[in-house]
Amino acid sequence: MNTRLLPINVENIGKFVFEDPGRYFLGDWTLHLSETGQDAANLLQAAKQLQTSNLPLAFPTETVYGLGADATRTTAVAGIYRAKQRPADNPLIVHVCSLNQLRKLLMPSLDSPGKCTNDNLEDPIPAIYHSLISRFWPGPLTVLLPLPRPSPLAPAVTGSLSTFGVRMPSSRLALALIHLANVPVAAPSANVSTRPSPTTATHVLHDLSGRIELIIDGGPCTIGVESTVVDGLADPPVILRPGGVSIEMLRQCSGWENVTVGYNDGVETSTPRAPGMKYKHYSPKARVILVQGPLSLKAVAGYIESAEKIGLAKTRTWIDEDLAVPGKPLLRGFSSQGRSSVFRISRGEAIDLYNNSNGSTINHALQAVEADDRADTIQVSSADLGTNAASIAQNLFSVLRELDLREVEIIFVEAIDEAEGHSAAAVMNRLRKAAELQIQV
User: Fold this and answer.
1) Nearest C-alpha neighbor of 303 from the set 238, 353, 245
2) Contact 234, 214 (CB under 8 A)
3) 369-398, pLDDT tens digit by residue?
4) Angle, to 10 degrees, between the axis of helix 297-304 and the axis of helix 347-358?
């Protein structure tokens, strides 16, 4: 199967027209497509594929790239699981372009979805979510809703649960795609299961080339980690997955003052209530070691073993020179480009430091090799994730993928304080799920 990149610049697709500009996408809206240019034509092509094809397509959202299919067609949803090699009990999130579309899902018999008032029909969206929707939609927040009976959703979307997750993305390109297709779109991240989520079209192509036909290239994602998933049907409400909306932000909303954490950062064994809960996720090919504390050659020496290439993913305090032997500069071979650098360290000196600090008498075969002997050096690929939670979240998956492409065998990642920003808990959740080992220095 030939996989094509379909570039679309959302600025060129046409004009969004809002019935109530004050309500933005939460009210009724339409899209007047441009009659000239390739971007609108490409968008129409993608929307038609969503309507008719059983093959999913990849599209950008503000969080990560999604792998989308018509959520109401069983054969289309099956294509998502096939392309991703995704476990069948891992539920999918449904994406909608308006509250009208969501209400129609919840109450298919509703003649005028979106027009519910106290004077006619009760709103099928539970009242507990109204404050969240007003503040965070469209945006990186997924809410758990009761599955209507009979359900218009394909059974595979829910993973046999009595609830389903839904969100309205803030990406205008995603909203336009869903609007033109006129179907709710089931979409997990557009990667092979367990791999780091994709934040560019190139990431998707790397994972899914030959498995899907179409990837919409709308540029890099702005947030970089998946949506927060909440369950307001529980009492008290719970967060099932951390994401772009923090617990502090949720607690500012009516009815959510006592929201609690309902997830752990390990791999759960029970039936998952939301994506990202049960299985190993976000892992590059390299072994990931999450480090709480300062970087030093002594700290990493006990884990490098026979590795020829290692990676560093730095946040706020680590610098490359931390891996120098005290009193000596880094070895030659240092090069730098943008946020990344490559240099070499001495395996022998690292082992010496480790053995001396631990009182070891192990006679390592490489221990006595001179520091300037490049045959006994380790190549270090170093990348900056950013210095605040938002930039770290945006760069996290991209850096893990970049270090994988450099064929490093181990990636040491600098941990951050989960309380330092809105996305910090999400970053640490993803890193703990990706890490094989966590160490405290």
Assistant:
1) 353
2) no
3) 333 444 578 899 999 999 899 999 999 999
4) 100
**Cα radius of gyration rounded to whole Å, the chain:** 24
Q: What are phi and psi of 155, to 5 degrees?
A: -55, -35
Q: What distance, in Å, lies between the first and last C-alpha atoms of the chain?
A: 48
On the question of pLDDT at 197 being above 50, the answer is: yes
The angle formed by the CA atoms of residues 124, 166 and 132, to the nearest 5 degrees, is 70
The span from the CA of 112 to the CA of 275, in Å, is 32
User: How is residue 236 written in tokens?
Assistant: 């008290």
CA–CA dist 94, 272 (Å, integer)? 16
d(CA 318, CA 255): 41
Measure CA 404 to chain center: 17
Tally DSSP H helices, then E strands, for the chain. 12, 20
Instruction: Fill in the amino acid letter for 245.
Output: V
Please identify which residue in the block is written with the tokens 């359900």. 151
177's tokens: 């795609």
Model confidence pLDDT, tens digit, residues 301-355: 888 878 899 999 999 899 888 888 777 777 656 666 667 888 888 777 776 666 6
The owner of tokens 């179409």 is 214
pTM recorded for the entire structure: 0.89
Contact 381, 309 (CB under 8 A): yes
